[in-house]
Amino acid sequence: MKILVTGGLGFIGSHTVVELQNEGFEVVAIDNLSNSSIEVLDGIEKITGKKPIFENIDLRDKSAVQNFFKAHHNVAGVIHFAASKAVGESVENPLLYYENNINSLVYLLQELINLPDANFIFSSSCTVYGQAERMPITENAAVQPANSPYGNTKQIGEEIITDVAKVANINSILLRYFNPIGAHASGEIGELPIGVPQNLVPFITQTASGVRKELSVYGNDYPTPDGTCIRDYIHVVDLAKAHVIALQRLLNKQNLEKVEIFNLGTGTGSSVLEVIAAFEKISGQKLPYKIVERRSGDVISAYANTDKANTVLGWKSELSLEEALSSAWKWEQKIRD
Q1: For the segment 109-133, what is each residue's pLDDT rounded down to a tens digit?
Q2: Distance of CA 142 to CAs 6, 137, 172, 194, Å?
Q3: Which of 191, 179, 181 is nearest to 43 (CA)?
Q4: How far apart are CA 216 and CA 194, in angstroms?
Q5: Which one, of 282, 266, 287, 147, lies nearest residue 217 by Cα?
Q6: Which residues are catalytic?
Q7: In this structure, how many other beta carbons lie within 10 angstroms of the beta carbon of residue 116?
Q8: Is the dihedral of CA 218, 221, 227, 233 positive or negative?
Q9: What is the pTM (predicted TM-score) of this model?
Q10: pLDDT in the model for residue 196
Q11: Which among 196, 208, 107, 101 has a CA at the least distance from the CA of 156?
Q12: In which residue ranges of the chain is pLDDT below 70?
């Protein structure tokens, strides 16, 4: 059964390709390598013993998307990761985010509506909740005005998919994930940000390895126990496995609605300073950091209620924050060797 994974050489995409291949799926990965590396294919092959089919395509190129589906008309499911994903960058360059994240989704769906039966997994985000009024956040929480253009593209993406599902034979699952971190236990694939990391954990590991002089902590005056932002950090391998389970749910026609929504997180919130302390514990080294001004677009606190994913989807996160940080540190050390 052939599955298309867009953004398949990216951080979450590559780990999902591994889990799909481990389950016996044939995978076609699309990536434009704007925030990934062709060497990721070798890492996937070392882990699974098989290299996925790879197409270097920019999904903003409508004719390229059309040509892909002409060549691969027997795709049984699509997992759509390909998108720009940094909150801060989206505030600085909103048009890049609207073009990349919205156009690529539209061009994919325009091809899928031509299929007799399409299964679509959308990489969404807890940013759609904005600053939620209650913690932990359930799927019934109000979708708040977005705090960033990135968050807005995820909200708009969900709305587009919901509208299309009303008129086309597309079954979709929207996975709203919290903060993916970590790397594959093998050390063969992991997070590989280009330039200065926008996410906390690669910034931590790059600081620990000496690539960065010190870690910037964006604000310590938030209304939280230690003044720093709280997030739900989920191991990327747990997250990847959830995509496979969601895909199997659609392929087996177990979905109860044409569009289903699930939170993916651990259900536990950790502050920035708590993550730093946990990293210092697992690495045995002191991390240099400084408190700087708050960053535009950041919410105070966000962590998941995962009851629906646990009971309906039959998925639960299994790996701890310490295990995620340890794998991320192993990966960082490997790529710096």
Answers
A1: 999 999 999 999 999 999 899 889 9
A2: 28, 10, 20, 34
A3: 191
A4: 18
A5: 287
A6: 150
A7: 5
A8: negative
A9: 0.97
A10: 85
A11: 101
A12: none
